[in-house]
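Before surveying the methods themselves, let us examine one representative protein, pairing a chain with its fold in token form.
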Amino acid sequence: MQRRSAFRNYVEYALARLILASLAWTPLGFARRLAGFYAALLDHAVPRLRRIALRNLELALPELTAAERKRIIDGVFASIGRLLVALARFPRLTRDNIGQWIRYEGFEYFQEGLRRGKGVLFATAHLGNWELSAFAHGLMAAPMHIVVRPLDNPKLDALLERLRTLGGNRVIAKKDFARGILRALANNEAVGILIDQNTSLEEGAFVDFFGLPACTNLGFAKIAARSQATVIPGFALWTEDEGRYVLRFYPPVEMTGDPIADTQRLQKIVEEVIRRYPDQWLWIHRRWRTRPPGQAPLYE
């Protein structure tokens, strides 16, 4: 991989700081409009993102009309804008005001998981506001652990980690994720993991996702079975009528010990929620990039 220049890292970092500051210190209504402008700018500056989203929708939801696909993709960029506003305001969010941004549904599932004493594994996705879901849970309930892939830009990575941990949460890097997760679960703590990304043939297996074979990491299911943790799907979903998010926990998923079967069950739950909130999932990710041996690529 080509080495990144220090100049590029600094420019990206400075731009990110400028964007976050503009969203943090302007009135909320204006900040939301400004974030929409930034998201639209991203859409026009990086046209391949919209092309990827369109291709994904053609593959996953072929029954949609062109107008419906456009509406969903426009919604994706609007969702990114809302995420940026919340992220920029993490330093100002507290236990006292977090309710203005998000509320719980299904919190009893988490409480029951803690009573079992084996820890809680949150299975989540790039759906709604995954950054706010973990941050808010740390404020409203108890600090948790989040598994992340470090960004290529170390300055940006440090900035994002600082924001993510302001509320007491702790970051587990993917390179050491198994040991860190098992340690947290043994202490009856909660760990959040994004499970909706494409992975390589070496790390995953193919399960059905929107009727297509999608290469998916089996690590989550293996750790869940080994630890006997309570597995709870959870997503922070935007509700337009309330003007805030709902952190919705779904009923716990029992693990059978078969990593492929368990992974399939979890992916089916993610798919069902995406179908209900299609404009809040990150369709700009090449989810079906890895193909079964002998099959042609699905992307340009």
Strands lie at 102-105, 120-124, 145-148, 170-173, 190-194, 204-209, 212-217, 230-239, 244-249. The chain is about 50% helix and 15% strand.
